[in-house]
Amino acid sequence: xxxxxxxxxxxxxxxxxxxxxxxxxxxxxxxxxxxxxxxxxxxxxxxxxxxxxxxxxxxxxxxxxx
Length: 66
Known about the structure:
42% strand, 3-stranded antiparallel β-sheet, mainly beta
């Protein structure tokens, strides 16, 4: 499977939804590599906070290629 940033760069992703559970499990996993952060712009369109999770919705603003 392709990493998240490749889906965005290929124009296959218009919206990104993240469901963040309020549990610490160690170091975690990066959604995007730091080298790709300059090429992906996201706009937060919705945040829903609940006792067990935070639900985030982002719109992909641009898909600049390297």
